[in-house]
Amino acid sequence: MSGENLQELRANISWRKLLDAIFAIIGLLTILVAIITLLALIIRLALDGTPRLNWQFFTSFPGRDPEEAGILSAWVGTSLVMLVTLVAAVPLGVASGIYLEEYAPKNWLSALIEVNVTNLAGVPSIIYGLLALGLFAEQLKLGESILTAGLTLALLVLPVVIVTTRESLRAIPNSIREAAYALGTTKWQMIWDHTLPYSMSGILTGVIIALARAIGETAPLITIGALTFIAFLPEPPIKSQFPFISLKWLQAPFTVMPIQMFNWVSRPEPEFQFNAAAAGVILIAMTLVMNGIAIYLRYRFRRGIKW
């Protein structure tokens, strides 16, 4: 290689290193701006809402007086709707991901299903609300109930659970599968005893991301008839008399935290704005609790697995 070519190569390498450094600096600055903006919004929300956080705020129904209004029906409704979403979306999503990754033949039909599942993750949430209104509320006669809301949000987050399950299973080395087959296990035994435990941390991450999206959704729930004001609670799932379990709460009307916040924000009185900020703090806290549970479960799974 001549001296001119060597000098040109060095100059090209230096230019590329400079471009990499510029790109890294721009990316870092972008992340810092986003984090600082988010922290500023959260701090402002906490400063406005913290003075309203007391026991009465948690145990009171919404009302006309901002000093006496609370979020009892909203946080109970949010908890019940998320319970239905969890029960409906997670088993179905994980099972679908396992089938598509481990059992489905690699042909044009599987490729078509994979593309459609990926695209469904980006569909606007209002579309799921319209779908649920026609299917669950009208065709299946479930009405404007907690069950309808939970199934609607389950449809919304199902693609996220499926995609993350597939990616988590795909990240497991094939050597683990081959070692399991070498010991004489069946395909299901290999999945249940080996690939699924190793991929559980990634699956839990996807589940929490999906639930974190669902807990803040408003548009699909308004579409299916969520109430902006509700002053009663559904029948509790657990009773003191036989059979001790009641499912009537699934058919009860409901409201959720984001809708209650929207109702307060739309009021002209500034006191209701502080109530909405306090509800936002509680909603963020619920999301952090879910993330904390997921981190703990991932830690437990990783401790119990030895590579």
Automatic annotation (TrEMBL):
Gene3D superfamilies noted in UniProt: MetI-like
Keywords: Cell membrane, Membrane, Transmembrane, Transmembrane helix, Transport
GO biological process: phosphate ion transmembrane transport
Record flagged with keyword Heme: no
TM segment ranges: 21-47, 74-100, 112-136, 142-163, 218-234, 277-297
A single MF term (Gene Ontology): phosphate transmembrane transporter activity
A cellular-component GO term for this protein: plasma membrane
Protein topology in the membrane: Multi-pass membrane protein
Intracellular or extracellular location(s): Cell membrane
Main location, first listed in the record: membrane
InterPro entries: MetI-like, MetI-like_sf, Phosphate_PstA
Domain of life from the UniProt record: Bacteria
Pfam families: BPD_transp_1
ABC transmembrane type-1 domain sequence ranges: 75-294
Key word Membrane present: yes
Family listed: Belongs to the binding-protein-dependent transport system permease family. CysTW subfamily.
NCBIfam families (UniProt xref): 3a0107s02c
Protein name listed in UniProt: Phosphate transport system permease protein PstA
Species this chain originates from: Fischerella thermalis JSC-11
